[in-house]
Amino acid sequence: MAIGEAMAAARKRQGITQLDLSQEVSYSRESIAKYETGTRKLPRDMYPTVTQQIDDPEFYFETWGETTGLVSIPYFNGDHIDQHPASMVYLVTKETAEAMDHLDHLNWGKPASAYTHEEMTQLEKALLENLDAAASMINMVASLSKTHGFSMKSLFQKWQVSLKARKYKL
């Protein structure tokens, strides 16, 4: 889905009009309409502003991929995904256990330069399992935010404050 179409769908899911959004991002309603229909390309520098103003979990995931290329987490959606909170917790538990199991089987005392081809293959599998676990966790945050009316924007802001308080570099 093109970014403009995704923006329109997210805006509608959140009950925001084109006029409301235009006032929040300081662009005309006509410009917003053109971005949504694809007659004008949404400037990349506008992605974060629009995404934050719409504050829609699914849209965060869609624009994440657009703004970062391949370094993103997909939004888990579709016929085979159950967004129910209990199902999401189960998915996170399962994916995290698989990731930890793969990590437990690696030799962490060995220097990276001494890894064999087989060990590098095992490390790659462990990394992929950890990406699955991370994706399931972020999707659970999105699902629970949506179900319980939390703002992902607000949650991420609070999380960043917490990281800074623990002296993490952002």
TrEMBL record:
Residue span(s) of domain HTH cro/C1-type: 7-43
Pfam families assigned: HTH_3
Molecular-function GO term, any one: DNA binding
Lineage top rank: taxon: Bacteria
Cited Gene3D superfamilies: lambda repressor-like DNA-binding domains
Name this protein carries in UniProt: HTH cro/C1-type domain-containing protein
Organism in which the protein naturally occurs: Cytobacillus firmus DS1
